[in-house]
Batch of 2 targets.
Target 1
Amino acid sequence: MTWNKQPSLFYAMVLSMIALQLGGFLAVPDIPLLFFTALFFYRYDRFLKKESWINTIWLGMCAVFLLYSKYHGILILFFTLLSNLSLFRSPRVYAAGFFTLLLFMPHLWWQLQHDFVSFRYHLQESNVNPYKLSYTIEYVPGKTGPTP
């Protein structure tokens, strides 16, 4: 294959190098979350077009990678299901959820054995103020939070 026959492939590769360079330079933990979010939505689109077992397994794998990359991935999964309630009528969605849970179970087991140490750290023990439900409730109407 030559570049003159595939100019769109060439430009896609060149432009993706810019994104990879910026992502590598910043080295933030959100890069895997963004990657697996994009991969999840790609596989979700494929799943909606054809509910095959291959697409079901891929959807479950992307969901578990999303959860392993960052706990915020649960929001993407939750709001995806909420946006399309007809998914709950498909047994393959439940199969993908079971597959995700099966692959995520070792992490949950480790958290259980270690008294949910990472959750406790992020919600109570970090160097910021401990989490309060009022922070989330007051965020939506735009009230200011506590002053240090």
Note: The chain has two domains: 3-113, 114-148.
Target 2
Amino acid sequence: MTARTSFRGSFTALVTPFSNGALDEKAFRSLVDWQIAEGTDGLVPVGTTGESPTLSHEEHGRVVEWCVAQAKGRVPVIAGAGSNSTAEAIAFTRHAQDCGADAVLVVTPYYNKPTQEGLYQHFKAINDAASIPVIIYNIPARSVIDMSVDTMKRLFELDNIAGVKDATANVVRVSQQRAAMGEGFNAALFLETSPAPVKYALSVLGKCADTVRLPMVRLAEKTKAAVREAMVHAGLIN
């Protein structure tokens, strides 16, 4: 049985709030409710924006559980489940399936630099180990390797491979072009590595602290000023 999806619209990549170095469950659950109230079509916990590399496996699982429980079926949840270890990615995928997530987002294995055949076997193993839809996350800027169109085509023939999140394009360049043509478009959240800028913006709105885990650090003062200026431009603050 195939596990294709009918997802449509914009899915928010959620930050993972911290308080005194620990997960901030209250702030996270409030973010889920706020995003749904603001009209998001779906939620993506523990992805890049959720600082998944610095979460323990236990923390990773708890964030997914909180997201599914708080969403209460109001919008789909695509849980981050990627790892450069195939066994770990399978464990994350099975956990997401067991706690009721609607799909998983699995990044191409970083650091290892697998071949195209290695990429295929990695995702095929995940496909074979669970029945939840799998979204391939292809982001060469972070994972080094780039999945080829041929490999993606092979994978899409498998039952549970349901789509791709393509992060190969230069989004900032598009933003700059739109701004140059006279339509205001905010690129300030790309001035430093994500999610530090978006966490700072959320802290300005009173949604969570701007705390990030090392090796990520809080924004420089110059960047904070740029983010605030962009928020004023967007009408989020005065």
Note: The chain has two domains: 11-169, 170-238.
